[in-house]
Design brief:
This protein has one domain: 3-Layer(aba) Sandwich (Glutaredoxin), CATH 3.40.30. Helix 1 runs parallel beside helix 3. It is about 35% helix and about 20% strand. A 4-stranded mixed β-sheet has the order 2-1-3-4, covered by helices on one side. With about 80 residues, it is of the alpha+beta class. It contains 3 helices and 4 strands, in the order βαβαββα. The mean pLDDT is about 95. Bound molecules: glutathione (GSH).
Length: about 80
Amino acid sequence: MSKTLTFYTHPVSRARIARWMLEETGLPYEEVVLDFGTTMKSPDYLAINPMGKVPAIRHGDTVVTENAAVCAYLGRTGTGQGP
Ligand SMILES: N[C@@H](CCC(=O)N[C@@H](CS)C(=O)NCC(=O)O)C(=O)O
């Protein structure tokens, strides 16, 4: 069974870099849109990214934050070289 890939984002943010990589991989993903200062700082989201920033992704039990790390992770995963 494939792992669920969730993308935490805001449309007007640097998370568009991670979205570009998501689209490049072609992997199916779910999107969660967060608002600055409210849901981005909620306890639920801070449990995913303690910085309270976007982007972040969750892939199964793996959470990755920071655009560079997200792109590197997706680059490996999208080509079958990742976990
Ligand atoms: N170094 C991080 C920067 C992430 C970042 O600063 N994201 C902004 C949006 S462009 C954010 O979530 N800001 C929310 C806040 O600071 O409260 C990355 O490249 O992913």
